[in-house]
Amino acid sequence: MRRIAANYIFPITSDPIRNGYVDFADDGSIIGTGRLTSETGSTEFYNGILVPGFTNAHCHIELSHLEGKFREATGMSGFIDQINALRESAPAEERQRAMRKQFTKLYEEGVSAMADISNCDESFAMKKEGPMYTRTFVEVFGSEPEDAPSVIAEAGKLVEKARQAGLDAAITPHSPYTMSAELLRMASAEGLKAGFISYHNQESAEEDDMIGFHRGPLYENYRNRHLSIVPATGKPAILHFLDQLTKVHPAPFNEHIILVHNTVSREDSINAAENILHNCTWVTCPLSNIFIHRAMADLPLLMSMGVRIAIGTDSLSSNHILSMVEEFKCIHRHYPQIPLQTILTWACLNGAAALGKDSVLGSFEPGKRPGAVLIDAIDFDNMQLTAGSTSRRLL
What we know:
- The protein has 13 helices and 16 strands.
- By secondary structure, the chain is an alpha/beta fold.
- The chain folds into two domains: 85 residues, Urease, subunit C, domain 1 (Roll); 308 residues, TIM Barrel (Alpha-Beta Barrel), CATH 3.20.20.
- The protein has a six-stranded mixed sheet, with no helix packed on it.
- A hairpin with a 4-residue loop joins strand 14 and strand 15.
- It is globular.
């Protein structure tokens, strides 16, 4: 047995415990928690807070070689131009080194599970060998309706490769603006069969303008490249996604649907989704959204509507660092009224639930194996992280 204690432990499903401890069996499973009355020689005590391992609910680990190469504040249209120009700007060996470095760093800093987007097979061996649980979302694009069957066929081959490597994987649609309605329906059908979809939703006003009204920089970008664009809906972009879902599967939906970014999601959009998506997680990627759009999701609104929120880092094409703790700090800066306990619930238990792993990860409950992470340099008076806070895995 191993007893790990700290100034506070955050079980997540209950209130923080001052001078608390967690007892772990030799296999990493939790035996129990409590408050220290006295320390024994075998107790490991750390200054800081002890939390379960995080779930990074949205990452593109295979884009790690793009660190430092992108301009900020370009909007979605400018970001797409950069990704098209720079995605394969490094040789395969450099891409592997960068990816493995970041994967290892994420794990050592406390990420126990990750929802990872893949457009190729470069990350599969690393994820197979690594100690972190990953669910691989094989993402598809394609604006031309006639290309949809061949795009799905090629993505299916990639999914089979991932499964042969022992990974949980399935096809997922990318976003409304990168896909014909035909491809969106076909990709969604594949994701629903597997029980999981991860979808970039309302990341920018450009997206709503393009899908709803055929206007704005993103619309002009596609028109200038002579790409097909779905008919204007006159509605927020998420309603186009929901409409396509209901064409391949009757509502409601109990499958795990992960909606990522949600930067411009408002009450009508959230209600429309929650009315038919009964196992939905709204993922925020604060630093990425600031990097591209100088904007953040309205987290207080999402909280007030009682939805399940989780946190992701996105990729190094739209972030300077892949760090869950830095995402927490960003939330503190923009929404200081949100308690640390709430942020940690999003990062630990809610992220695990999004991947269907909350029975084994996400909280300090007997029988679970979430790992143990120390976050240091805590402002205990206000129970917030400080600029100097870092995280490291203890188990």
